[in-house]
Amino acid sequence: MIALDVDGRTIQVEAGITVLEACLQNGIFIPNLCFVKTRKRPHASCRLCFVEIDGLDRPVPSCTQRVRDGMKVRTDTEPVRRLQRSAFKLLMSTHICTPRECPTQGRCQLIRTAKLLKVSLKPSPLERLERDVDPVVRLGPLVHYPYRCVLCGRCVHVCGEESGHGLLTFAKRGFNTVVATFVSEGEEGPCAECSACVGVCPTGALTLEAPETAESEEPGRAADSGG
Amino acid sequence: MHKLDPEKRLALLAEEARKRQAQASREDVPTLRIVMSTCGLAAGAAETRAAFEEALERRGLEARIVAVGCLGHCYAEPLVVIHHPASGFPPLCYYNIDPGKARMLVDSFLLDGDPALEYVLGAMVPNDLLPAVTDFPRFSMEQRVVMEHCGAIDPHSLDDYLALGGYGALATALGRSPGWVLDEVARSGLRGRGGAGFPTGRKWRLAAEAPADSKVVICNADEGDPGAYMDRTIMESNPHQLLEGMALCAYAVGAEEAIVYVRAEYPLAVRTIQRAIDDARKAGLLGERILGSDFSLHIRVFQGSGAFVCGEETALIQSIEGRRGMPQHRPPYPVEAGLWGRPTVVNNVKTLSTVPAILTRGAHWFRSIGTEKSPGTAIFSVVGNVTHAGLVEIPMGTTLRTLIFDVCGGIPKKKAFKAVQIGGPSGGCLSGDFLDTSIDFDSLTEAGAMMGSGGMVVMDEDSCMVDVARYFLDFTQNESCGKCTFCRIGTRHLLLILDRITKGEGREEDLELLDTLSRDIRDGSLCGLGKTAPNPVLTSLRYFRDEYEAHVREKRCPALKCRALTAFYIDLDKCARGCDACVGCCPVEAIFTTRGRKKAIDQELCVKCGECVTACPPEYDAVVRVSPAHLAPIIERPQPSEGRG
Ligand SMILES: Cc1cc2nc3c(=O)[nH]c(=O)nc-3n(C[C@H](O)[C@H](O)[C@H](O)COP(=O)(O)O)c2cc1C
Ligand code: SF4
Ligand code: SF4
Ligand code: FES
Q1: Start-to-end CA span in chain A (Å)
Q2: Which residue spans within B264-400 are E strands per DSSP?
Q3: Residue nearest to atom 8 of ligand 3 (CA)
Q4: Please, which residues have CB within 8 angstroms of residue B135's CB and are 6 or more apart in sequence?
Q5: Are residues B297 and B400 in the same domain?
Q6: Shared-domain flag, residues B456 and B473
Q7: Strand B428-431 relative to strand B417-422: parallel, antiparallel, unpaired?
Q8: 4Fe-4S ferredoxin-type domain location, by residue (chain A) (predicted)?
Q9: Among the listed ranges A156-165, B161-170, B290-299, which one has the minimum average pLDDT value?
């Protein structure tokens, strides 16, 4: 075990884990969407888990830092919060929140993050961005809601590295990036039995349930709750 | 033969090469060197060459035609250097040689001995007869280390390279030790030319010391910056120099495998490098037991599919491994765990191409060029509103002013300089206040721009800086890999905000929003693409803030560039009664005849293409562009009944 100082509190954790895990294990919440424990190399794409660490001159994603004995970490500084709020607003500018239908049933990481950061679920001052995607997409037997997806890549990772199927992938590029599957249309594949991806999706963007009513997913009909 | 040391073996190879060269070139036969790198081909060099061949055949003349690489004078292409010993003239460099001039030169110079001096740029060597190009500012202020032999040697000829002492540094190194190479490169102070300027010696030492059985060297020739073509040109003009640099790196770090990562859009570079690899292998300069030593190296070419982000080293490695080209978090750096987890050195084409000269002439010599912290030369492809666009190699520490105004001939059409964008799409836009900035890694970064990999765009007074920022953001947001939040979504917002400002729909809060969002994207993105993408916005906001304010507050584009904010009208005092030069050119028939038989523009119909400005005869020069758009006087179209009076 090693000891580190987080926001003035000393915590004991096992060596080799990340600062993010160390904090989460000790009840210190750091917003995070893309972290998966089994990843050899951090994906570090959601850019929410920033912390400040003594000796580093700017905030770093805590999922990319391994704990060191005597490390001093601060999770609640102004630069950290600024970046987190900014990343969150950006995500919300492409996300559509439909709390009633959402399969996360309030366990949504985005809502939890909004509460911690004390911001609304609205993207303002940013505008909402339209994406060139269908509201509901069939990925083999999976049902995918691109407007909920934050492209954290957890599903792609568990499908490939954990369940060994390698059927999910990112397709297209840049702002148009989407999750896609190699399962052909109409085929079942191993998805219904596996459903590992459904379990790790932090935003309820993947389900095996029948598609929700189309209108509730119309862009623009976003319920700006929580704000 | 196997008892010889590498240097002696190389000496034999070079001697054979010189013999073959001597046989091929006879004193009485003229030599025509035609620049046939991509820049030359784009200007029509292939047609020029065909015209020479055809004219020579028609006249029954003998001449040796050699396709060479780029001389750097891309503005004057197609370029041909003719050496006609019997004429008594030194080798002459001819510019803008189209097929017609090619046929003329065969008749007048090769047949009749008249060199047609009006088409000569200059002689290639100092002489008593006519000015030499070496006296031009372009040449005298340049200092060529990497491009020394570009345009002079045949890139497809290993003999040409060997005859100039090529592979000499490798032979020397093989006779010494990897440690010697590491020490020399470290002592030279060479910094990576791919953008970040990381000390090459340190990178190589890390790779050399990394514990692993197998290591890799990758030459980064992705070159995705729009308008940049330094790396392509070097590969097309002197491929063996790059291969020698790669071999030296591999020897120094203990790698037996190397890859040239070239974008597939560079077919000529791919072919040239591949041929050079094959030739070098056949000559024992690559492959197993190079020059009889224990060192073996296999180099192959990997063709990337041309995504800008694949120039980022971790994305590049992913792409070779067959994965989506997405950057990875560093550390681990490639020197620790790169291609297939092996220690990997990734270096730019220019970095590697510099190494043979450093080892041949010494670290001390290299340090004598450039500045203390940025030794050596910088290669830029200078494009935009500049008289002599092309490739230049200058000592680090040269000022922007010298580069733009002396070496590249300044701004054409008597326009004023406005800004220079350095460092590719994610570099910064610097204003005239920065013209005396020294070109080196640290000074440019301090000014808010960056060295980048050598793209430079010069802009004159007609450029709108908001529009320029929008242009570069359009590029970077398109090239974002989509992995991380800030870059994927943030650059999109930046682009939309800039877009609405150029359309006159900007809001007062937008300036603040642009600034904070840009800083967040810079500080929050995963890789260099996102971290640097906001640079054009941040620098233009800082140095040209008044232009942003004019767009937002007055709906005015000071450079008269943004269509939505400008209008054209015809100055009735200048318009010539009865002239209708502009009428036919308007694609939407917006120009009509006024009661006074002059012309006017229907603002409702006008699409602001500017065709009428070009069509109006210069002696009248009656079409005026104004901003904001409401400044254009509204002139009513006469009713059909009264129109033709
Ligand atoms: C978006 C992006 C694009 C890049 N493109 C190139 C490139 O085209 N060529 C290059 O040599 N380096 C490029 N780099 C830099 C490389 O990641 C790497 O630093 C470089 O190849 C190292 O070589 P050097 O040490 O010789 O400079 C790029 C970096 C980023 C972030
Ligand atoms: S579907 Fe869910 S798990 Fe997959 S990338 Fe989107 S948000 Fe992440
Ligand atoms: S900064 Fe842009 S290019 Fe780099 S990883 Fe993030 S999304 Fe991809
Ligand atoms: S959890 Fe660290 S960047 Fe997403």
Answers
A1: 41
A2: 298-304, 344-348, 377-384, 390-395
A3: B481
A4: B122, B126
A5: no
A6: no
A7: antiparallel
A8: 140-159, 182-211
A9: A156-165
Residue A213 has what pLDDT?
58
**Contact: A86, B481; criterion CB under 8 Å:** no
Residues of B with Cβ-Cβ distance to A41 under 8 angstroms: 328-329, 332
Residue B81 lies in a domain: yes
Domains for chain A: give ranges and CATH numbers.
2-90 (3.10.20.740), 97-225 (3.30.70.20)
Interface of A with B (CB under 8 A): 41-48, 50, 58-59, 61, 64, 79, 82-83, 86-87, 90-91, 93-94, 125-127, 129, 150-151, 153, 169-170, 172-177
pLDDT score of B101 more than 60: yes
Confidence (pTM):
0.94
Ligand nearest to the Cα of A65, by number:
4
- Least Cα distance to B155 among B63, B64, B34 occurs for B34
Question: Considering the domain boundaries, does residue B150 fall inside one?
Answer: no
* Both tokens assigned to B624: 């005026």
Q: Give ligand 3 pocket residues (Cβ under 6 A).
A: B 309, 327, 480-484, 487-488, 525-527, 529-530
SS3 string, B224-292, reads: CCCCCCHHHHHHHHCHHHHHHHHHHHHHHHCCCEEEEEEECCCHHHHHHHHHHHHHHHHCCCCECCHHH
Average pLDDT over residues B90-110: 96
CA of A138 from ligand 3 middle (Å) equals 27
Q: Residue B424 has what DSSP assignment? A: G
Residue nearest to atom 8 of ligand 2 (CA): A152
Residue B217 bridge partners (DSSP): B258, B345
Interface ipTM = 0.93
Better pLDDT: B578 or B236: B236
Mean pLDDT of chain B: 95
Provide the residue range defining the domain that includes B328. 166-367
Q: Do A47 and B516 touch (CB under 8 A)?
A: no
| Residue A103: per-residue pLDDT | 81
Q: In chain B, whose CA is at the least distance from the CA of A126?
A: B493
Of A41, A50, A91, nearest to B328 by CB-CB distance is A41
- A94 Cα: distance to centroid of ligand 2 (angstroms): 14
pLDDT at res. A212: 65
B525 and B485 Cβ atoms separated by less than 8 Å: no
User: Do B296 and B213 fall into the same domain?
Assistant: yes
Candidates B429, B531, B411, B528; CA nearest to B471 is B429
Residues of B in contact with A127 (CB under 8 A): 493, 496
pLDDT digits (tens, 9 = 90+) for B355-389: 999 999 999 999 999 999 999 999 999 999 999 99
Q: What is the pLDDT of residue A216?
A: 44
Q: Which residues are CB-contacts of B98 (< 8 A; sequence separation ≥ 6)?
A: B44, B47, B48, B51, B78
Q: How many domains does chain B have?
A: 5
Ligand closest to the CA atom of residue B484: 3
Shortest Cα distance, chain B CAs vs residue A58, angstroms: 8
Q: Ligand 1, residue B220: give the atom nearest the CA.
A: 11
Average pLDDT over residues A189-213: 88
Q: Which helix or strand (DSSP H or E) is residue A61 part of?
A: strand A60-61
Higher pLDDT, B517 or B423: B517
Do B128 and B202 share a structural domain? no
- Domain closes at, from B553, B575, B605: B553
pLDDT score recorded for residue B25 = 75
Which of B312, B337, B367 delimits the end of a domain?
A: B367
Confidence at residue B137, expressed as pLDDT on a 0 to 100 scale: 83
> What is the tens place of the pLDDT at every residue in A84-131?
999 999 999 999 888 777 887 777 889 999 999 999 999 999 999 999
Indicate which CATH number applies to the domain containing B518.
Answer: 1.20.1440.230
Residue of A nearest to B337 (CA): A41
CB B491 within 8 A of CB B532: no
Chain B residues with CB-CB distance to A under 8 A?
A: 307, 324, 326, 328-329, 332, 477-486, 488-490, 492-493, 496, 509, 513, 516-517, 520, 523-526
B582 and B546 fall within a common domain: no
CA distance B513 to chain A (A): 8
Check pLDDT > 70 for residue A221: no
pLDDT at residue A217 above 70? no
